[in-house]
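Input set for joint prediction.
Command: fold jointly, output tokens.
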Amino acid sequence: MAGDRLFGVHGAALAVRSQRMGLLASNIANASTPGYKAKDIDFAAALRDAEGGGIDAGIRANTKYRVPLQMSIDGNTVELSTEQTAFAENAVAYQTTLSFLNGRISTITRALKGE
Amino acid sequence: MADAPMNIFQVAGRAMSAQLVRMNTTASNLANAGGVATTADAAYRTMKPVFRTQFDAASGMATVNVERVVTAGEEPTKRYDPGNPMADADGNVWQNAVDETRELVDMLESARTYQNNVEVMQTAKSLIVDTLKLGR
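tokens >
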């Protein structure tokens, strides 16, 4: 949970990052589907809301349609450069969160062992 | 698949299958480019897949399916060629309706989209494996 005393905000951050990865993968999968509207999660807002009212509600409230830089004729709003950049950024941030969690776990393990 | 929530591998995997169908139709179209037939009905017409988004409410994700494959594009054109063994009584043959340039562009685009989905799947796989190793 968001207010978890052991892992702080990182548990919720990992959940939001994972959901965002799925959403960006959906956008990339529908890159050539006519009429598909790309969606994305506002990560900072979703994490803030997750602290108050749960992770799922925070994600649902902050999933928005993306505004394309340029409309295409078939109504598709996926811009591959945007999606690929967001996907790469999200993957790195996911890995960062994993490192934070790993650091926390090893700290606690060391404390428990009394080394 | 309808009941269980969709996962990221299904999203990317189905998109890859859809692009593969598109690539197959492009190959059929290109293979038939330049061919002729005796009647307009017998001449080959360009085939195109129709993509349709499939939403999954449980996971909030969306993948793509090939709804059907349709014949699209222009009509076969008539050409006067009495020496051709395929010519009809008036000496006309019907040319297959395939726009080679458009098909090649289509092929490149579907190959690139396929590659993008492979990248997505590889990244997702390595992140999930890293998550499983958490705390080790």
